[in-house]
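ERR on first pass: missing label on line 2. Operator R.T. fixed the label and resubmitted. Corrected input:
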Amino acid sequence: MLSTLYKDAMTPHLPTVALPDESASYLKALEEATAHFFQQQEAVMQAISPETLPLLEAIAALSTGGKRLRALLAYWGYRGAGGSPLHQDAIKAGLAIELFQTAALIHDDIIDASDTRRGAPSVHRNFEAMHRERHYKTDAATFGVSSAILAGDLCLSWSEMVFSSITSLTATSEARFIFDLMRTEVMAGQYLDVVGEVVPEEEPDRALERAFNVIRFKSAKYSCEHPLALGGALALQLEHSTRSDLLEGYRAFALPLGEGYQLRDDVLGVFGEPDTTGKPAGDDVREGKRTVLTAYTAQKATPEARKLLETSLGDPHLTAETITQLQDLMRTTGALDEVENLISLKSEQALTQLAQLPLAQDVRSSLETLALKALHRLA
Amino acid sequence: MLSTLYKDAMTPHLPTVALPDESASYLKALEEATAHFFQQQEAVMQAISPETLPLLEAIAALSTGGKRLRALLAYWGYRGAGGSPLHQDAIKAGLAIELFQTAALIHDDIIDASDTRRGAPSVHRNFEAMHRERHYKTDAATFGVSSAILAGDLCLSWSEMVFSSITSLTATSEARFIFDLMRTEVMAGQYLDVVGEVVPEEEPDRALERAFNVIRFKSAKYSCEHPLALGGALALQLEHSTRSDLLEGYRAFALPLGEGYQLRDDVLGVFGEPDTTGKPAGDDVREGKRTVLTAYTAQKATPEARKLLETSLGDPHLTAETITQLQDLMRTTGALDEVENLISLKSEQALTQLAQLPLAQDVRSSLETLALKALHRLA
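pass 2 clean. output:
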C-alpha cells in the first residue's frame, strides 16, 4: 500500500512547456532517489513501530506535485560550474532542498491555518481527519497540529540527512555554508512574515520595508539564489569564503529572479485562480498576508479605502464580494501596476545578468526556460 | 542586552554532587562554545532584521539550566574510546545534541500545551506574553505557537549546523548515522506518545507495549544510548556498519540506564515536587501522558478505579485532591512498586555492564557518577 503511495507521489510532474531532455532526465532521477529514500525510511519507521507510518505517508504525499524549481536550479548551477550530467551529488542536493521545502510547507500551513496545499488537504488537516475517522479521543484539531509539527520536524531532519550524505562535502565547504544560511534565513523570514501580520497599523514605509525583507529572505534567496549557488559551489568543491566570479554572477542573476518570482506569487495570491494556485481565490487576503502589493495599496489608498484594506486582511470569513472590492482597490490605486512593473524590472535584471554568465549554451537555455517559467508561472 | 542574556544563559549549572574536575572543565568549555555560537548567530539574525532577534533570545534562554546529561555522556563516550581531553569535536558534538534537545523541548511544550519549562514560561507562552506586551493584533496564543514552531525549527537547524562542523566527520561516519537515527527515533517516539494520548481505551497490554516503545525511542536511546555511542564512534572515527565491541558495550550499559532514567522521570511526573521537576505537581496526569506507570495502574486497578484513571488523564482542570487520589491508586495497586522495581533492575543491569567495559578508571567513575545522578535525579 505504501509502495503504491510512493509510486503515485513520485510520478514526475513534468512541465507542459518543454524542458530540455536533460532536465527531464534529472527530474526522473530525482523522483527515483526520492522514492528510494522513502523506502529506506519506511524500514526504519517500521522497526520503531508501524503506528508511526502516518508521519512518513504525510511527508511522501506532500512530496508529490510542486515544480521542483529549487532542485532544477541547483542542478543547472551544478552543471554550469562544470559538474557532470546526472551526478549523484546534484541529485542528493536537489532532494535535500525539496525535502526542506516540504518541511517548510508543513509548518507554514499550520502557521497560516491553511486548509489546503497543492489542491489537497494540508498535513495538519489530514491528521485531523485521521483522528475523526479512527474515533480518537480529545480534540481532533490539536492532534492534527501536534502530528504535523512532528512530521515537519522529521522531514527537516531527513532533508539534512540527505544533504550530509553528499560525499564531496566537508565541514568547511561553501555548499554546506549556503545550506545552513538558507535555513536560518527562511525561518527568520517566515517569522518576519508572522510579525507583519500582527503588528498594529504602522507607517506604510515600514510595512513596505518588512515586506521586501520577507520577499528577500523567506523567498528570493531561498527559492532561487541559494539553490543555484549551492549547486555551483558543490561542482566547484569550493571552500567557504573563497571568492568565485561564477557564484557572484549566479547570485546577480538569481536574486532578482527570486524577487520577481515571489512578487508574481503575491499577485497570484490575490488575483490567481484556484486552478493555478491550488488554493481558494483571495486566500492570501483571508490569511492576512502582508506583501509588497498590500503595502503599495495602503500607501496609495484614501484613508477610507485603507481602513477597508486593514480590516479585511486576516479576516477568514471575507466574502467573495469584498475580495473583488479589494482587487479593484489594488487596480485603481495603481498598486497592481507598480508590482507588475517591478516584476518586469526584476525579470529584465535577471535575464541581463544571465546573458553575461559564462555558460555553455545548453545550461544557459535551461536556466532561461526555468526563469521564464518562474516569472510567469507557466505550468 | 543580548550579551547579558547569553552570559546569564550560559552560567554553568554545575551539579552539587561533585563531578570530576574534567567534567566541570568540559561543561565550562561547552558553555563557552554555546555562547560563542549564539554570538555568531546574532550577527546573522541582525543582518536579516533586528526584528528576528526574539527567536534567538528564546533559544538562548531555554539553553540555560538542564543537566547536560546527553552532552556529558557524549563526552565520556568520546574519552572512553581514546579521544583526547576537551577536544573540539567532543565539544561540538555536545553542543549539537543539547541544541537538538532545546528544539525538541520547544516543540514538545507546544504539543503538550505546557505553560512552564525549567521553572520559567515555555517558549510559546513567552511569545504569547510578548504579543500582549506589544499590543499586537489578532490572537496572542496563535502568535505564540507560530513563533515557537519557528524557534524550534531554527534551533533544529542550528543543531545540525554545529554537528556538521565537526571536522573529522564524513558522509559515511558511524557518528553521522547515529545522529540521524537518533532524530528520526525521537520524532517517531514523540508521535507514538501523542497517539497514546488519543487512542480510545484499549487493552492494558497494548498500552503497556506502546509505553515501553515511547520510553525506548523517545527517551532511553536518545538521552543515553545514542549520545554515549556517538561520542565513542567519533573518537574511533568509525565507519558506518563497522562492528565495534566497545560501542556494543556502551549500548548494553546505556540503554537500560536510559530506560531507568525515563521511568524515574515518569514517577516524578506524578509524584515529584515542583522544586525538583520545574513543573507543577501531577503535571503529567493533567497532560494525559500515558506511561508505563499509568499502564501498570490500569492493568491492576478495579474497573471502577480504572475508570477514574481514564477520565482523569488529560483533564487540565484536575484538582489537587484527585491527583492525590490517583497517587494513592498507583501506590495501592502496587503499580508504583512495580515501576520502582523495574528502575532497580535497569540500574543493576546498567551498572553491571559498566563494570565490564574496558575503561580507564577516571572514565568509568565519571560514567558511574552520571548514571547514578540520572537514575536518582540528584541535582
